[in-house]
């Protein structure tokens, strides 16, 4: 179908893992090791630093640099949260729902098998920082740990099999957490992999609802009617976002999905807005240079916290990347935290 065709015309992205190699060395090695990848170019992406762009169809899975964890196959839009989060070297950060979802891996032509927000944040905070990474799914957490080890981030990331909603935000261990990245389970309706699932399921005549999501513990089959399923995801996303905002010393919280549904995106932000304002948060204009913003049609109810213009959307048909949504909440450091 045309969705699959449109996906195959996307550029392929790979993030240079600066924990292991500098961008300059990576580019040198890329040209030395892969004369066959003549068209491979380092593209100084205006939105995502350290991102390598290859022509559509390039398959880097077997590349030695990928195997060594120097290059991480990560779609451009899935790099947005760690960039928009704006953590600094040495920060303590929570990655609330950290493990890679697995649906997309079953699609053989899907280019990114190691999504990597945790390792991306680890590269940002560096050796002096800490990333507390939670996931409720044991098998996925194992994959996360393998990715973290491969990326050389084992000393920075503390990965725990825990339901994020049960994490005690007042635990002294998290007293210095200044940023929280929340990328919870979603319908995945903005991604090619799940569009692929959708197309396959549609071809089989199955009823699917927005689909391909990775709800903790779920085995993947879509049985609930679409609207009920998306509403259930939105209810979880809202709870998780409220929990993320409640870390006492947090100054920045990013919320992201790879869904196209307003219900999982702008409306989640609207639902938490009153509480976020009470806690001193407003929306920051995330990735200010990015062109596609939150839905104007959803702006009612967002004015007080900053407006739909603050939000980021990516459209998999129009933009050269997967469908995505990002919101960034920011507040001044709490009193007493200034001298950190
Ligand atoms: N950010 C990840 C990456 O870059 O690879 C992808 C995260 S994926 C979209 C969402 C994850 O949330 C899944 O691995 C799922 O197991 C996890 N999850 C769902 N419910 C959770 C909960 N209550 N607590 C912690 N993790 C949860």
TrEMBL record:
Coiled coil: none
UniProt keywords, alphabetically: Methyltransferase, RNA-binding, S-adenosyl-L-methionine, Transferase
Entry binding sites for S-adenosyl-L-methionine: 97-103, 135, 163, 183
GO cellular component: nucleolus
Record-level GO BP terms: rRNA base methylation
An example molecular function term from Gene Ontology annotations: RNA methyltransferase activity
Membrane in keyword set: no
Domain SAM-dependent MTase RsmB/NOP-type, chain residue ranges per copy: 2-332
Taxonomic superkingdom: Eukaryota
Protein name in UniProt: Predicted protein
UniProt family annotation: Belongs to the class I-like SAM-binding methyltransferase superfamily. RsmB/NOP family.
Active site positions: 258 (nucleophile)
């Amino acid at each position: 179908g045309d969705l699959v065709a449109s996906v195959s015309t996307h550029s392929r992205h790979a993030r240079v893992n600066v924990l292991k190699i500098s961008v300059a060395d990576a580019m040198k090695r890329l040209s030395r090791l892969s004369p066959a990848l003549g068209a491979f170019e380092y593209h100084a992406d205006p939105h995502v630093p350290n991102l390598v762009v290859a022509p559509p169809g390039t398959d880097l899975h077997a590349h030695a640099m990928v195997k060594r964890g120097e290059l991480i196959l990560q779609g451009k839009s899935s790099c947005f949260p760690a960039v928009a989060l704006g953590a600094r070297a040495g920060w303590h950060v929570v990655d609330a729902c950290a493990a890679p979802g697995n649906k997309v891996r079953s699609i053989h032509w899907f280019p990114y098998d190691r999504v990597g927000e945790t390792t991306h944040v680890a590269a940002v905070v560096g050796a002096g920082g800490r990333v507390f990474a939670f996931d409720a799914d044991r098998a996925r957490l194992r994959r996360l740990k393998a990715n973290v080890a491969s990326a050389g981030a084992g000393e920075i990331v503390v990965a725990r099999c825990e339901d994020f909603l049960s994490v005690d935000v007042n635990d002294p261990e998290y007293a210095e957490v200044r940023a929280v990245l929340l990328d919870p389970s979603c319908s995945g309706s903005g991604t090619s992999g799940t569009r692929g699932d959708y197309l396959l399921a549609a071809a089989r005549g199955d009823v699917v609802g927005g689909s391909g999501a990775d709800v903790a513990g779920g085995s993947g089959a879509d049985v609930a009617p679409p609207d009920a399923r998306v509403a259930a995801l939105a209810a979880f996303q809202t709870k998780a976002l409220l929990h993320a905002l409640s870390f006492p010393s947090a100054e920045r919280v990013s919320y992201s999905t790879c869904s196209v549904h307003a219900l999982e995106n702008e409306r989640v932000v609207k639902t938490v807005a009153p509480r976020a304002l009470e806690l001193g948060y407003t929306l920051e204009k995330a990735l200010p240079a990015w062109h596609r913003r939150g839905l104007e049609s959803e702006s009612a109810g967002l004015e007080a916290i900053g407006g739909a213009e603050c939000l980021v959307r990516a459209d998999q048909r129009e933009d050269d990347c997967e469908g995505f949504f990002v919101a960034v909440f920011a507040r001044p450091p709490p009193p007493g935290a200034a001298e950190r």
